[in-house]
Amino acid sequence: MPASLRILLVESDPERAERVREALAEAGESDVVVFSGRRVLARDVAETMPDIVLVDIAHPSRDVLEELAQATRPMDRPVAMFVDRSDPATTRAAIEAGVSAYVVDGLRADRIRPILDAAVARFHLFQRVRSELAATKAALEERKVIDRAKGLVMKARGVSEEEAYALIRKTAMDQGKRVADVAQALVTAADLLR
Amino acid sequence: MTRDIALGYVPLVDAAPLIIADALGFAEEQGLRLVLHRAANWSMLRDMLDQGQVAAAQMLSVMLVARALGLGGGDVRLETPLVLSLGGQVVGVSSAVADGLDQLGHGFGFCDAADAAQAVAALGRPLRFGVPFAHSMHALLLGDWMKGLTEGLADLRTVAPPLMPEALAEGELDAFCVGEPWGSQAVVTARARLLLPGTSIHPASPEKVLALRAGWCEAEADLTGRLVRALSRAGEWLALPGNATTAAEVVTRPGRVDVAAERVERSLLGRIVTDDRGTEHVVAGFQTFGPSRLMRPTPEQAGWIAARLAFRFGLPRGWAESAAAGVFRADLYDRFLRPVAA
Questions:
Q1: How many beta-carbon contacts under 8 Å exist across A and B?
Q2: CA–CA separation, A181 vs A142, rounded Å?
């Protein structure tokens, strides 16, 4: 088993950083330094002396890492970090998942790959959990609004709950809108007129 | 038949042609529906274009030439059929440096590049300049501006434009060259003072271009033609001063460029507030989106950029100029815009 690589993880979301760190530990990589600031400076990277830098592709300071990786002439690379493009399929998967890797020159692709695979998998999982959470929250909010709108229609027109809902749904269909949007408009209007 | 096309952009004032073409129907007129993808930084935008997540992007003109010279990540060749904007940059200094320049009697006239360079040189100490990207017009303009001064007076560092004000306030930077609205933002939030508009260093520097992967245009000639015409007309519309207020409102809609509309309007009109007392300077041609004849990409522009990159990165100049020659494709501009140009 080769010595553990030093990994610098640049990620401003502490929760996601922690999840990725766990995944890396499971892959046998324990030497992980997390940088959670928004503004990365050259010296932050220099002090860590990483073999690999993993960064959220949308990180505000990613262009700084890019500069560090290419500060020198293309022919000689004393800085010795470069954007990992050793394996097009892995690179593509990484970019789609939202993570990018910079590696020291000469690091073998078979050492990089499991690390990147672990990070990519965790980025995907984290994104999905987050999307699900947001969707659930939005659905709950919408249901509350629809319930209020139903109440308003029942009271104003003296109809049953089913009839009130049918009326809202018909209006939404006629206008090519979502039920939740019609309900929201009704609630907003009722609040204004109160 | 209406066709969809995915475009990448970075939220700056000069993303305006893409946003306007989408919102005000210039794309629709050409039978296009633009699907705009916002990128958080230039590396991300480049990856999106390289990997085909977007078909085209609003990109720093210098990035395309740097790519042709083998500088920077990625190996897909890029080219442009259309310049999207000229100028739009500002050079500014921290309040501490501004005080030093005040004491030396500098007038902050916001117009004379040579005079400002002399004043900065008279400070007698090197300044750390923030630029948005290593391969950017901002870095090249600073190089030209500081030329003739003692060697080593400017140290360039990459800082993301939205983080420029805090880097300045926390003493990581002494000065910057950045595109609007971020220079004005530094004035408001970090008490920076603006020294020069980019146009005082180079009157018509090609700042952003429409970047395509080489070969895409030949494979999708009809689509490219529609896109180039839509963006060109949006640029012509943007160039009319009477449209600035509307343009600023549209460009700053939520999810696009998230700054106050007034900042964008000032940039479009060249009415730049240069200090926190509200001193306003009016700069003719501060940022140019049209008329279309000014937006033709020429081999001379690519050569100008290549020569400066060659100087900065120690590459042979003649080789660099010829390697860059095919990146700015006047032939594509002529093919798509000449027959219909008024």
A1: 84
A2: 9
CATH number, domain at B163? 3.40.190.10
Residue A81 parent element (H or E): strand A81-83
Domain that holds residue A174: 136-193
Number of domains observed in the structure of chain B: 2
Two tokens at B216? 């895409």
The pLDDT tens digits of the residues spanning B17-67 come to: 999 999 999 999 999 999 999 999 999 999 999 989 999 999 999 999 999
* Domain-embedded: residue A166: yes
Domain final residue, candidates A131, A148, A182:
A131
Decide if B42 and A85 are in contact by the 8 Å CB cutoff: no
Query: B76 and B149: one domain?
Result: no
pLDDT band at residue A77 under the 50/70/90 scheme: very low
Return all residues near B335 (Cβ < 8 A) that are at least 6 apart.
Answer: B225
Residues B275 and B144 in one domain: yes
Kindly report the number of other CB atoms within 10 A of residue B300's CB atom.
12
Among A74-78, B97-101, B126-130, where is mean pLDDT lowest?
A74-78
The answer for B52, left when phi > 0, alpha when psi is -120 to 50, beta otherwise, is left
- Is residue A49 left, alpha or beta, with left meaning phi > 0 and alpha meaning psi from -120 to 50? left
Instruction: Tell which of A131, A153, A172 closes a domain.
Output: A131
CA B153 to chain CA mean position, Å:
24
Q: What count of other Cβ atoms lies within 10 Å of the Cβ of residue A75?
A: 9
The answer to whether A63 contacts chain B (CB < 8 Å) is: yes
The reply to whether residue B313 touches residue A73, judged by beta carbons under 8 angstroms, is yes
Read off the pLDDT of residues B210-223 as tens digits, 9 standing for 90 and up: 999 999 999 999 99
Residue B94 has pLDDT above 70, yes or no: yes
Would an 8 Å CB–CB cutoff place A66 in contact with chain B?
yes
Q: Is A82 within 8 Å of A69 (Cβ atoms)?
A: yes
DSSP B227-247: HHHHHHHHHHHHTSGGGHHHH
C-alpha A180, offset from chain centre:
27
| Residue A35 and residue A77 in contact, taking contact as beta carbons nearer than 8 Å | no
